[in-house]
Amino acid sequence: MEQKEHVECLIIGSGPAGYTAAIYAARADMKPVMYEGMQPGGQLTITTDVENYPGFPTGVEGPHMMELFKQQAVRLGTDVRYGMATAVDFSSGKPPYIVTIDGQKEIVAESIIIATGASAKWLGIPSETRLNGGGVSACAVCDGFFYRGQDVAIVGAGDTACEEASYLSKICSKVYMIVRKAEFRASKAMQHRVMNTPNIEVIFNSETDEVLGDNVVTGVRLNNVVTEEKREVAITGFFVAIGHTPNTVIFKEYLKMDDVGYIITEPDSTRTNVEGVFACGDAQDKVYRQAVTAAGTGCMAALDAERYLSAKKASETM
Ligand SMILES: Cc1cc2nc3c(=O)[nH]c(=O)nc-3n(C[C@H](O)[C@H](O)[C@H](O)COP(=O)(O)OP(=O)(O)OC[C@H]3O[C@@H](n4cnc5c(N)ncnc54)[C@H](O)[C@@H]3O)c2cc1C
């Protein structure tokens, strides 16, 4: 083990939430140290055009936008480092806490901001991977706009899939909703909404055999799991809405989470159930999952951490 390093504010994760937290923490003189993790810049580094982040009237490429976030955080004094948090010890219930980086270095942190995001679940078929970015997407709200007036398909059977199908139906000509079983998993209200939308066609008992197209999506081949019949549907956009996995497993022993692994924060706050530990972005948001909301909660986390540290210092000097 290397020697322990003491930091006032440790930020874990370098997506929009982490960088926004870093900008605010640096300006509040908290000398933030950030570990970027396995995907420096976060999820937006795997997309091309971001058209819904305010301040970019003609859109911006995801990797470029995240480079701008980084430049701003670094200019204001954030110490950005490559590395993964591999273990945490919150057992004392009061900071400082020890966070292990890459299984080697130990950081002793007075406050911690968790901004580790979430990863979309995929079907795991080769054509889905090959055409990712060429018409395959895991975010209808982010990418639906690029398929306006076109025919698309969405895979999934839960509330999120129904909500995204409904969102797409307002932009696209036709939405095929592919459901593996003979019924939805979604609430009755969401099912009702989907079934009553004229341009959504639900295809039950079907799984995706292959997404078709050389460089861009041109269709999808479905397999009926009951009859084994194959069917091809012409589409230009293929959306996967089968859930997300929050990157929160290393915190599981200590933090309150829902059954999927989203960190539960106090209402109107980013405070977790552990003193001095704050959570922001997609790691604690299963509802909105957008860059701008992640940035918003990143700001909140830095303000919460700053107020926590100030109150603690004030009580220590009394
Ligand atoms: C293909 C695609 C396109 C999208 N397009 C849009 C769009 O157009 N507009 C929009 O608003 N949103 C879009 N989104 C959603 C948006 O990217 C997310 O809502 C946003 O990135 C969430 O930000 P975040 O900071 O919470 O997490 P993320 O961006 O997921 O970043 C998480 C960070 O945590 C790090 N990390 C994880 N575990 C560890 C660890 N143990 N130690 C250290 N670091 C760790 C990762 O390396 C990463 O840097 C898109 C998402 C995808 C996948």
Describe the structure.
The protein is of the alpha/beta class. It has two domains: 5-119 and 244-317, FAD/NAD(P)-binding domain; 122-240, 3-Layer(bba) Sandwich (FAD/NAD(P)-binding domain), CATH 3.50.50.60. Helix content is 25%, strand content 27%. The protein is built from seven helices and 19 strands. Strands 1, 2, 5, 6, 7, 8 and 19 form a seven-stranded mixed β-sheet that branches. Helix 6 (188-195) links the parallel strand 12 (174-178) and strand 13 (200-203). It is elongated, with a radius of gyration of 22 Å. The protein starts with a strand and ends with a helix. The mean pLDDT is 96. The chain binds flavin-adenine dinucleotide (FAD). The site of flavin-adenine dinucleotide (FAD) has 41 residues, from helix 1 and helix 7.
Give the SSE layout.
Layout: E1 5-12, H1 16-27, E2 33-35, E3 49-50, E4 60-61, H2 62-75, E5 79-81, E6 85-89, E7 97-101, E8 105-114, E9 118-120, H3 126-130, E10 136-137, H4 140-143, E11 151-155, H5 159-169, E12 174-178, H6 188-195, E13 200-203, E14 206-212, E15 219-224, E16 230-234, E17 237-240, E18 244-246, E19 277-279, H7 291-317
Parallel strand pairs: 1-2, 1-8, 2-5, 8-19, 10-17, 11-12, 11-17, 12-13
Antiparallel strand pairs: 3-4, 6-7, 7-8, 9-18, 14-15, 15-16
Helix pairs in contact: 1-2, 1-7, 5-6
Short description:
The protein has 318 residues and is an alpha/beta fold. It has helices at residues 16-27, 62-75, 126-130, 140-143, 159-169, 188-195, 291-317; strands at residues 5-12, 33-35, 49-50, 60-61, 79-81, 85-89, 97-101, 105-114, 118-120, 136-137, 151-155, 174-178, 200-203, 206-212, 219-224, 230-234, 237-240, 244-246, 277-279.
